[in-house]
Amino acid sequence: MKKLTLYLILLLLFTGSYLYSQKTVSKDNFTFQVQKEEGDLNNDKIDDRIVLEMDLEDETRPLRLQIFLSQPDKKLKRVVSSTKIIESQYPVDKKGEHNGNTIPDFFIEEGVLKMLTDINDRKSSYEFRLKQNNFELVKISRVLWDGKETTSETEIDLIKGTKIEYDRDFSPNKKNIRNTKLKPIKALPKIQDLSFSDLEKL
User: Fold this and answer.
1) What is the mean pLDDT of residues 149-158?
2) Which residue in 17, 48, 101, 193 is a FRET match for 71, CA 20 to 30 A apart?
3) What three-state secondary structure class fits 23?
4) Distance between CA atoms of 56 and 70, rounded to whole angstroms?
5) Weakest mean pLDDT among 55-64, 118-127, 174-183
6) Residues 12-29 pLDDT 10s
7) Which helix (H) or strand (E) holds 166?
8) What's this model's pTM, rounded to 2 decimal places?
9) φ and ψ at residue 177, rounded to 5 degrees
10) How far apart are CA 56 and CA 15, in angstroms?
């Protein structure tokens, strides 16, 4: 009887741990490639890679950004993987509706990683510099057109701690500049820590 009880306890423990391990193993469903960009980010004259993928099995259609850097052995190593920097195409709070925005575009220009977004008709450019295998946000540029003759433009330099805002009127070609000093930033935001809502608040 004691042996049977012990056997049942062990069986229950084993079954429970097996089921738990099955639940914690997440299947990689990001199978649809939205964008692939190559260029030299770490200045070793070997192409690095940016990959943007979508999970088609999840009804919210989440997106994942991955960045691979070339190593001394010329192989690529993943240094960034983020599913929060880009909003899902069909967010839960929209109840099945599309978020209304285009998927951001990534590209490499002179060793700098850039991300372009168009959210609620406001076009933004985010620049990230590579430092110790981390991509730190250093600059933000934004343009919002009023649909007539004026654009509101913003340029933020997180390293210098400056923010320049101006309205450009295209009829008389005037430019009204408003300079703002930002609060000092102790540590520059890293791409893997940022969400799409964080970027919009900056």
Assistant:
1) 89
2) 193
3) helix
4) 29
5) 174-183
6) 444 444 333 333 334 679
7) strand 162-169
8) 0.80
9) -100, 135
10) 31
Amino acid at 97: E
> Is residue 201 classed as helix, strand or coil in its secondary structure?
helix
pLDDT, the chain, mean:
84
Compute, in degrees rounded to 10, the torsion defined by CA atoms 35, 38, 40, 44: 130
Lowest mean pLDDT of 7-21, 45-59, 75-89, name the range.
Answer: 7-21
- For residue 198, give the amino acid letter: D
Closest by CA to 49, choosing from 105, 88, 87, 106, is 106
CB 139 within 8 A of CB 129: no
Tell me what percent of the chain is helix, strand and coil, each rounded to the nearest 5.
15, 45, 35
Cα distance between residue 37 and residue 40, in whole Å: 10
CA–CA distance from 2 to each of 35, 111, 170 (Å)? 61, 69, 89
